[in-house]
Design goal:
alpha+beta, elongated, four-stranded antiparallel β-sheet, transmembrane, 21% strand, 52% helix, membrane, transmembrane helix
Length: 153
C-alpha cells in the first residue's frame, strides 16, 4: 500500500511541475510580445519626432541661407523690407532696419503642435551670426495638485 502512494505522489508532482513550467513559459511569451509591441510604438514616435525636428531645422537653414544670399547682394533698404515680409508666417521679428547690414532678428519654425524651433541671430557687416538655436515648448503647463502628498506634519 505504501508503494502505491509513493508512485502517485511522484506522478502528481511531475504533472504539477510541468503545468507550472508551461504556465511560466506562456506568461513570459505574452510579456515579451507586449513589450515588443510597446517598443515598436515608441520607436515609431521617436522616428516621427526626429523627422519633424530635422524638417524644421532644414527649413530654418534655408531661411538663413536666403537671407545671407540677399545680404551678399547688397540690396536697397526697401528690398530688405520686402524680403522680410515674405517670412511673416514664420513669426519673423527684426529689431531695426536703420542699417541694413547691422541688425538683430529672430524667427520660429514649428516642429509639431507642441514645439517650435526658435532662432535668434545678429547681422554684422552683412554676415549672419546665430545667437541661439533652441527648441521651445508652445504648450501650456499647469501644476497638478490632485495627489495628497504627506509633507511630514
Amino acid at each position: 500500500m505504501a508503494g502505491r502512494n509513493s508512485q502517485g505522489i511522484h506522478v502528481g508532482s511531475t504533472s504539477i511541475l510541468m503545468v507550472f513550467s508551461v504556465l511560466c513559459l506562456t506568461i513570459f511569451a505574452v510579456l515579451s510580445f507586449v513589450t515588443t509591441n510597446y517598443e515598436r510604438k515608441l520607436s515609431e514616435k521617436t522616428a516621427a519626432a526626429v523627422l519633424n525636428f530635422y524638417e524644421a531645422d532644414s527649413h530654418a537653414e534655408e531661411i538663413l541661407a536666403e537671407m545671407q544670399k540677399m545680404l551678399n547682394a547688397n540690396p536697397e533698404p526697401g528690398l530688405i523690407d520686402k524680403f522680410y515680409a515674405q517670412f511673416e508666417q514664420e513669426d519673423f521679428l527684426v529689431s531695426s532696419l536703420e542699417d541694413p547690414m547691422n541688425f538683430s532678428f529672430s524667427f520660429e519654425v514649428p516642429i509639431d503642435e507642441k514645439q517650435v524651433l526658435h532662432i535668434s541671430a545678429t547681422v554684422k557687416n552683412g554676415i549672419i551670426m546665430v545667437n541661439s538655436w533652441i527648441i521651445l515648448s508652445t504648450g501650456s503647463w499647469s501644476v497638478d495638485n490632485r495627489l495628497n502628498v504627506w509633507t511630514g506634519e
